[in-house]
Amino acid sequence: xxxxxxxxxxxxxxxxxxxxxxxxxxxxxxxxxxxxxxxxxxxxxxxxxxxxxxxxxxxxxxxxxxxxxxxxxxxxxxxxxxxxxxxxxxxxxxxxxxxxxxxxxxxxxxxxxxxxxxxxxxxxxxxxxxxxxxxxxxxxxxxxxxxxxxxxxxxxxxxxxxxxxxxxxxxxxxxxxxxxxxxxxxxxxxxxxxxxxxxxxxxxxxxxxxxxxxxxxxxxxxxxxxxxxxxxxxxxxxxxxxxxxxxxxxxxxxxxxxxxxxxxxxxxxxxxxxxxxxxxxxxxxxxxxxxxxxxxxxxxxxxxxxxxxxxxxxxxxxxxxxxxxxxxxxxxxxxxxxxxxxxxxxxxxxxxxxxxxxx
Length: 359
Ligand SMILES: C[S@@+](CC[C@H](N)C(=O)[O-])C[C@H]1O[C@@H](n2cnc3c(N)ncnc32)[C@H](O)[C@@H]1O
Fold this sequence. Notes:
Layout: H1 3-38, H2 41-46, H3 53-60, H4 64-76, E1 81-82, E2 89-90, H5 93-96, H6 108-119, H7 122-131, H8 143-154, H9 159-163, H10 170-176, E3 179-183, H11 189-197, E4 202-207, H12 210-222, E5 228-232, E6 244-250, H13 259-269, E7 270-281, H14 296-313, H15 324-335, E8 339-343, E9 351-357
Parallel strand pairs: 3-4, 3-6, 4-5, 6-7
Antiparallel strand pairs: 1-2, 7-9, 8-9
Helix pairs in contact: 1-6, 3-4, 6-8, 13-15
Bound molecules: S-adenosylmethionine.
S-adenosylmethionine binds at residues 137, 147-148, 151, 155, 184-186, 206-209, 212, 234-236, 250-252, 255-257.
């Protein structure tokens, strides 16, 4: 090999090694950011000037030794600032803007929780690499809790202001009174918000897992809602007993056992002229076209360790998170849908919104 090629290879190799070190640091920091979110350390520090680990622990009611070590990780990781004494720490406002509950849909702390949730099934996933099969929902630690918090940011924060207005005429119909179905509703946060705001409409939420359904029923009951109904149902073989004017699926089609069946069933369950709003992952179905995707490695990882495996655990197709807009469009058309618009919203870089009318 010529010297220039050799130098080039060395430079590339060194840069790659540096990237791997960065990856180790960033992966570790994701866990620390998750802990900062769960313990509300970021929320507390947002309102504090430079303070010692004792003061921060005191303000949060947490153990000082753990807080001090956490500060070590986040300070060396460039998230928290340290003063000249080397003993006092501060969360700069420009970092708080992406790490606190008051940051709303920009709060990365919420999403960082997925790393530990995925890690909770690593042994099972390794087993699947060797023997095939899948990992079921109930084996994940905190999945439905984290998912509900995630959709609180990506759906609830903009449900009335941006998402529902994407569907022509739907808000006035919701005010007058229509039947709405949310497919794979999880803890039902979006449906509960809609049921509260539109008392003349009736809302139905179905999900495969009992745990989020119990949570959704408890919250709807606490709010005294009479126009909402939740049920645990496997929608793989869903036979509708009624038709709906409006059907929604928030991030809940690609990880189904049989997205093809469920889309056909949604088509049958929708009244003529009704709308189906499908929020799903905005990516290509081809790896080579996702090279510049800002969340590529994260989403393929989420797929391997969650979306694909939960589908395979139900003997499903295992399409995965990155099934892609192309496959989604194909399946929607095979299900019978003709009129499909795709919209994107600036707050949600992960998803696009398929606005589909049954003609
Ligand atoms: C990614 S989560 C989204 C949950 C919810 N829509 C949200 O935004 O918070 C996907 C949901 O689909 C549900 N699901 C998966 N397979 C299903 C099936 N065969 N029938 C019904 N629901 C299913 C899961 O239990 C899970 O709650």
